Amino acid sequence: MFYQLAPEVAGGLGPETVFDRSQSPPIVRALHYELDGWPDDDLITSFPCFIVTESMKKMIEEARASGCSFGPVKVTTSEQFKDFKEFHQGQQLPKFSWLLIHGAAQQDDFGLSADGSLVVSESILEFLRKGRLDYCDITPIGSS
Known about the structure:
By secondary structure, the protein is of the alpha+beta class. The chain is 18% helix and 41% strand.
């Protein structure tokens, strides 16, 4: 079984993101993620990128997942995030990593569907569920 994941969009691509827009979806060469809020989930997104907390990264590495690697991401907070200080009061943001997906959907543990959706294997989903995915929609898509 494989599953389509739709993580929370907790912000957007910041002004320091470097794109190659000659392809669709665009290829991101350097990622700057600007948080508008953080739902405490270990996996968040802003098309076409995914980022994970350090604890989720360690789980994925321990699982020896295929189809992904990790890269650096600059994470900052937006004015909207700052406007909700009372909601985020005392909240320490974790360290994040860019989850780079290069696997084939419904073949590798991590892959992207034709529309850019994240597709994961059942075995990796079990690892991911050890973290926080409270705002991530998870939809079964069948087996390969």
